[in-house]
Design brief:
alpha+beta, about 350 residues, metal-binding, three-stranded antiparallel β-sheet, Double-stranded beta-helix, oxidoreductase
C-alpha cells in the first residue's frame, strides 16, 4: 500500500508516484496495512470447504472461543481468509455478544484498521440497549413494526433483490468487518445471500473499469432520521466508532471503485441501500450506471453464495468488498446479534489489481 495511505513520511520520487495513485481516503482514518497480507495457512488444520468458486468458506468444528485463545498469526489468517473469500461461516457457536465484540476487535486490529477506529454504534441504537451500544439486534419482530432499512425498502419495492446492501456505507468511515449470529429462526426460510464486489469489478470491461475509477458516489441514510422520529428513539449523533462518524448528516462520499488493503484487490463500492448518486456525471447517467452495477450484483447468481442458517450459526464478512441480502420469506420469529467494526476511509489505489488478475485467473 502507498505511503500516502499508511502515514509514512517518504518524500522521494517513488513516494510521490505512490501518492498520485491514490484517490479518496482521509488522513484522519488511514489503514495501517502497508501491503496485502499473506495467509500463513494456520487455519488449514481446521476442516473447511469453499461454498462456491468465488465466494464463501465454511469451517467445521471451529469455535469462536477457540479463536479468542489463538495467537495473533491465526487471527491475521482469519482476517485474510474473510477478506479473500468474502464471507466465512462457523456453525453452532456457543458465544456471547461480548465475545463476538472481542473477536471482531481482534480481527480488525490484526488487519490494520486505523487506531481511531473501533466498533460501530448504529444511529438507531437505543440508549441503554440491553446488549450495549455496539451490538445491533437483528429482529423480525422489530422489523414488523417497520424499523430501519427493511421499512424503507418495502415502501418502494416488492423485489426481494431491493435489499442488497453493504453495511453503513453512509458513514465517512464505514465497516470493514461484520459478524452476525442467528440464535432464533423459523423452521425454514430466512436465508442470507452474499455477493462478491471483486467479481463484479472483474466483470466490467477495461474501459468501464477505467471510467468508474475516476468517479465518486454519494451514500446517504437520511431516512434513518425519519425512522428515529417515527420510532420515538433519539438519533445517535455522537461519535459512532470513529471521530469522523458523528452528527446527523448520515452522508458520505466514497470512490465508486475501492481497494481492499488486506487483499490489494479492487472492488465495486456502491449499493442499493445507501448509494444515491454517482458524482461528476448527469443524473440520468448516474441512474443508468447505478442500475447497471446493481444489476450485475442481483442478476449474477454465480457471484453469490446463499447460506441456510441453523441455530447459533455465525457469519463473518468483509463489508468493503461484498454485499448481502436477507430473505424475508418467513412468518415465525427470527433474531440475531450483529457487530460491525470500522476500517479505513475508503480509497482507491490505481496501482492495485482486480481479484482475477492478482490470482492469475
Amino acid at each position: 500500500m502507498p505511503s500516502a495511505i499508511n502515514g509514512t513520511n517518504g518524500s522521494g520520487p517513488e513516494d510521490q508516484v505512490q501518492r498520485s495513485n491514490i484517490k479518496g481516503g482521509n488522513v484522519e482514518s488511514q489503514t495501517r496495512c502497508l501491503k496485502p497480507m499473506v495467509n500463513s495457512g494456520s487455519l488449514d488444520k481446521f476442516t473447511n470447504r469453499d461454498l462456491t468458486p468465488i465466494i464463501g468458506r465454511e469451517f467445521e468444528g471451529l469455535q469462536v472461543r477457540e479463536l479468542l485463545k489463538a495467537d495473533e498469526q491465526l487471527i491475521k489468517d482469519l482476517a485474510v481468509t474473510v477478506s479473500e473469500r468474502g464471507v466465512v461461516f462457523l456453525r453452532d457457536q456457543d458465544v456471547t455478544p461480548q465475545e463476538m465484540k472481542t473477536l471482531c476487535e481482534r480481527i480488525t486490529q490484526a488487519a490494520g484498521s486505523p487506531e481511531s477506529s473501533s466498533l460501530h454504534v448504529h444511529p438507531l441504537t437505543e440508549n441503554g440497549s440491553e446488549l450495549g451500544d455496539q451490538i445491533s439486534v437483528i429482529s423480525s419482530e422489530k422489523q414488523k413494526k417497520g424499523g430501519g432499512l427493511t421499512h424503507q425498502l418495502s415502501d418502494v419495492s416488492r423485489f426481494a433483490s431491493a435489499g442488497w446492501h453493504a453495511d453503513i456505507t453512509f458513514e465517512p468511515v464505514p465497516s470493514d468487518y461484520a459478524m452476525l449470529k442467528i440464535h432464533t429462526l423459523p423452521a425454514t426460510g430466512g436465508d442470507t445471500l452474499w455477493a462478491s464486489g471483486y467479481e463484479i469489478y472483474d466483470r466490467l470491461s477495461p474501459a468501464m473499469q477505467s471510467f468508474l475509477e475516476g468517479l465518486t458516489a454519494t451514500h446517504d441514510a437520511k431516512f434513518f432520521l425519519e425512522e428515529a422520529t417515527r420510532l420515538g428513539n433519539p438519533l445517535r449523533d455522537g461519535m459512532r466508532g470513529s471521530p469522523l462518524n458523528h452528527g446527523s448528516s448520515l452522508q458520505a462520499t466514497h470512490p465508486v471503485i475501492r481497494t481492499n488493503p488486506v487483499t490489494g484487490w479492487k472492488s465495486v463500492f456502491v449499493n442499493k441501500g445507501f448509494t444515491k448518486r454517482i458524482n461528476g456525471v448527469t443524473k440520468d447517467e448516474s441512474d443508468l450506471l447505478l442500475q447497471y452495477l446493481i444489476n450485475l450484483v442481483t442478476q449474477n447468481h454465480d457471484a453469490q453464495v446463499r447460506f441456510k442458517w441453523n441455530k447459533n450459526d455465525l457469519a463473518i464478512w468483509d463489508n468493503r468488498s461484498n454485499w448481502h441480502c436477507a430473505t424475508y420469506d418467513y412468518e415465525a420469529a427470527r433474531a440475531g446479534d450483529r457487530v460491525c467494526s470500522l476500517g479505513e476511509a475508503p480509497f482507491l489505489d490505481l496501482a492495485s489489481m482486480g481479484r482475477r488478475e492478482a490470482l492469475g485467473l
